[in-house]
C-alpha cells in the first residue's frame, strides 16, 4: 500500500504560501504558510499533520492491541503534541483516555505501551515519544 500527498509552494519562505492535497482529497489545496506554521495564521502545517497522523495511528493500534487481549474499547481518545524547537521536530507526546470495560489499569497500561511502541507512525518517527494513558 502506498499513500500520496502533494505540496505546492509559491514565493519566499516567509512571505510565500502554499497548499497541500492528499490522495483521498481530505486535504484539497489546503492552505499553509509561514504564519500557519510559526504563528497563529489560518491553514495547516506539517507539525499539525504529524500530530494527527500519530494520534490516529496510535489510537487504531491500541484498539487492535486491546482486541487481541480480549477487550473491546467503548472509546479511545488520543491527543498528540508535536514539538518544534530551533528548527527541529524534537518530540511527540500522546495523551490517551479510554473507556474499556473489564480491563485492569495495569493491563491497560501494558496495552497502551505496546501500541505506543508498535504503531507504524511511532516506528517512523525518529524522536522522543512520551505518553500519558488513563482509563475514564
Question: What can you tell me about this protein's structure?
Answer:
This protein is of the alpha+beta class. The chain has 2 domains: 5-38, no CATH class; 46-135, GMP Synthetase, Chain A, domain 3. Helices cover 35% and strands 37% of the residues. The chain is built from 4 helices and 6 strands. It has helices at residues 34-38, 46-68, 105-118, 120-124, and strands at residues 5-10, 17-22, 30-33, 73-85, 88-100, 128-135. The strands form 2 sheets. Strands 1-2-3 form a 3-stranded antiparallel sheet. Strands 4-5-6 form a 3-stranded mixed sheet, covered by helices on one side. Strand 2 (17-22) and strand 3 form a beta hairpin. Helix 2 (46-68) packs across helix 3 (105-118). The longest helix has 23 residues, at 46-68. The radius of gyration is 17 Å and the shape is elongated. The relative contact order is 0.14. The mean pLDDT is 96.
Could you name the CATH class of the largest domain? Alpha Beta
CATH topology of the largest domain: GMP Synthetase, Chain A, domain 3
Structural class by helix and strand composition: alpha+beta
Helix count from the secondary structure assignment = 4
Query: Shape, please?
Result: elongated
| Rg (C-alpha, Å) | 17 Å
Short structural description:
The chain has helices at 34-38, 46-68, 105-118, 120-124; strands at 5-10, 17-22, 30-33, 73-85, 88-100, 128-135. The strands form two sheets. The chain has a three-stranded antiparallel beta sheet. It has a three-stranded mixed beta sheet with strand order 4-5-6, covered by helices on one side. The protein contains four helices and six strands, in the order E-E-E-H-H-E-E-H-H-E.
